[in-house]
């Protein structure tokens, strides 16, 4: 039980690394949460500080999810779980899922910045990349298509989040791929999708009001 608690805590800490805040402090000496949309995420960094810094933040946030899922989960690994594993997954895969979720929660409610972080999309994407690369790839394509046509990052992110469990459902039930552990993984996929949609609730309101900001150009200096 102690080993599991340690890897969960470490995953949360990894997810809590406030990449966007650190990058904005180092590059411009400002707090990104006081500029643009006020969100501590890569999209806001890209909009305020330019695409290079924004892309670096997004990639680092993505690797936080990969690191927690693929590497932190292996630390202090104990082959026996402190609870009965009723899933069709191996015990280690269950630990990976738990660590990935902990990293997402750390990104959204970061320990190092007053529990006010980003929306968890990039970190969640890193976890999904490690666990379900095919579904992740489809979600990325959907995100890119929606973003390219609408220029709304939030709408693309929501579409990608929805596409992830739908892709898994169709692969299993329509294309008969026989995904290992599907009957457990589908609920995990749905839960992750709902969490990411929840973190975009304010964006959804703005989209419905027609006041959501489009990402149509990139600036190299901060703006309010």
General description of the model:
- It is built from 10 helices and no strands.
- Helix 1 (2-16) runs parallel beside helix 5 and helix 4 (51-70) runs antiparallel to helix 5.
- The longest helix has 21 residues, at 153-173.
- The protein is mainly α.
- The chain has one domain.
- 66% of the residues lie in helices and 0% in strands.
Keywords:
224 residues; mainly alpha; 66% helix; globular
Residue runs with pLDDT of under 50 for 5 or more positions: none
* Percent range for β-strand residues: under 5%
Number of helical regions = 10
Shape: globular
Query: What would the average pLDDT be, to the nearest integer?
Result: 90
Helix content class: 55-70%
In total, the number of strands is 0
């Amino acid at each position: 039980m102690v080993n599991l608690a340690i890897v969960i805590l470490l995953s949360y800490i990894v997810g809590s690394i406030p990449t966007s805040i650190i990058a904005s402090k180092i590059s411009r000496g400002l707090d990104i949460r006081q500029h643009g949309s006020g969100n501590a995420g890569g999209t806001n960094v890209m909009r305020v500080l330019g695409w290079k810094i924004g892309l670096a933040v997004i990639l680092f946030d993505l690797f936080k999810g990969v690191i927690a899922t693929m590497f932190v989960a292996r630390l202090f690994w104990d082959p026996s779980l402190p609870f009965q594993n009723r899933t069709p997954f191996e015990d280690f895969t269950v630990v990976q899922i738990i660590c990935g979720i902990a990293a997402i929660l750390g990104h959204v409610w970061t320990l190092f910045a007053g529990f006010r972080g980003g929306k968890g999309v990039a970190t969640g994407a890193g976890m999904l990349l490690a666990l379900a690369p095919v579904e992740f790839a489809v979600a990325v394509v959907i995100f890119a298509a929606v973003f390219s046509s609408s220029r709304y990052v939030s709408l693309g992110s929501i579409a990608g989040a929805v596409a992830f469990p739908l892709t898994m459902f169709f692969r299993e039930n329509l294309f008969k791929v026989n995904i290992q552990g599907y009957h457990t993984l589908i609920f995990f996929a749905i839960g992750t999708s709902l969490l990411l949609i929840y973190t975009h609730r304010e964006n959804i309101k703005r989209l419905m009001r027609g006041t959501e900001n489009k990402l149509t150009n990139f600036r190299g200096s901060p703006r309010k």
